[in-house]
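Progress narrative, Year 2. Work on Fibroin light chain from Danaus chrysippus advanced from sequence curation to structure prediction during this period.
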Amino acid sequence: MLPFVLVYLFAQSAIALPTALVNFVDVNEARPVIDNGQLVSKAMTDKAFELIDGADIPLYAQMVIQSVNDQANSGDAASQASAVVLAINAIAELASGIPGDACESAALVNAYAYAVSTGNNAGLRSALINYVQRINANIDTIVRLVNNPDSVRYSSGPRGNCIGGGRSYQFEEAWDDILNNANPFQIGLLNEEYCAAKRMYTASSIRSNNLAATVTASLSRYVNQIGQNALGPLAEFLRAAASGGNVNASAGNAKAALSRALGRVQY
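Result:
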């Protein structure tokens, strides 16, 4: 059992990056997370994140995880969809012993930024298809993590054929649209995630770089549409993974729901 839990505070404004203050407290002093009974909850996402090795999570990734947990407890569907999609993708991204590439995330972010600026969605459609395939692969990774943790922890993340491993893309342009289209329930936590993602985007750590791309792509409004349309099966899969349930069956349902949701995206 880990003797400490990480508690962080950070302040930010619309134009400032966060300044982190890290304190360690005894785990016995930490309040347990109470399940609120909703389909998506902080208790569920917090438990799911326990699947990964907390000692190998970058500091700013810890900040993203706390924001995801808070999104999960929000009452609006957009925030809950963001929490579930981002939790699945972040767990898979952080689970492997050696980080892979972020090609699908970077390609989606670039296509998303281009579509927003030009109105041309042709490249966005194909990028979304590839990204949903990456989410499917991430679901499979979590299934492996539940059934045989060492098979993931001693493996490398997925590799792609893209320049720089997908760690250079139109970060600010994508986030401008994410924040500009946020509803009042989302904006505070999305701004926290932007600040943390920006630090990871410019970090020297490959794992941090990859997570920044994952966060940015996962929070794009078209992925959020997909997440909302597939929310039930995705949440059931994440809950099964968190509780040690039948992840094999729920994984198949989640991937089928993603496929259906992809066909209902409104551009």
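The two ends are 47 Å apart (CA to CA). Residues 1-18 have pLDDT under 50 and may be disordered.
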